[in-house]
Amino acid sequence: MKNQRYITKSLLTSVKYAAAGIKAAFGSEKNFLTYTFIAAAFLLFNVITGSGKYDYALFAVCTAAVFSAELINTALERVCDSRTHDESSDIEFIKNVSAGAVLTAGAAFFICEGIVLISNIAGR
Questions:
Q1: To bridge 105 with a disulfide, which of 65, 79, 81, 84 should be the other Cys (CB 3.0-4.6 Å)?
Q2: Using an 8 Å Cβ cutoff, are 101 and 123 in contact?
Q3: Do the beta carbons of residue 105 and residue 64 sit within 8 Å?
Q4: CA angle 37, 27, 55 (to 5 degrees)
Q5: Which CATH number goes with the domain that contains 63?
Q6: Is residue 21 part of a domain?
Q7: Tell me, what DSSP letter sits at residue 85?
Q8: Which domain holds residue 65?
Q9: Does the reported pTM lie above 0.85?
Q10: 73: CB partners within 8 A, 6+ apart
């Protein structure tokens, strides 16, 4: 039988839970603040260099990918830490792989933004 506490009743309730999760991650993970500043800097550079609508769409997708990967990484780390306090090669593997997902998304974000900004500066 499912735990009734976690069964959502409406879309609005689901959105409230999701917002609470994002808020909790921002409050507990310093990387979120770092990613927010990096994204804000790239957004500013996009504005300054005259990015177009597709550049902003790419920016939004890349930013969402990094934040989503970090949210998943945070959740996996929390689950792993709550299950055991012992050293475990499986736990280490899970944490390393999920951190690798964040690194991969972040690298793609930097590459995409680099291409956009260089194109904007070079005059397309």
A1: 65
A2: no
A3: no
A4: 30
A5: 1.10.287.3610
A6: no
A7: S
A8: 30-122
A9: no
A10: 98, 99, 101, 102
C-alpha 65/C-alpha 108 separation (Å) is: 9
Contact 36, 90 (CB under 8 A): no
Question: Of all helices (H) and strands (E), which one includes residue 21?
Answer: helix 11-28
Please say whether the beta carbons of 74 and 29 come within 8 A: yes
Does any domain span residue 9? no
How many distinct structural domains can be found in the chain?
Answer: 1
CA distance 62 to 57: 9
pLDDT in tens, the chain (124 residues): 456 666 667 888 889 999 999 999 888 888 888 999 999 999 999 999 999 999 999 999 999 999 999 999 999 999 998 887 777 888 999 999 999 999 999 999 999 999 999 999 998 6
* 48 falls within a domain: yes
**What tokens were used for 16?**
């409230």
| 124 Cα distance to chain centroid | 29
Is 91 part of a structural domain of the chain? yes
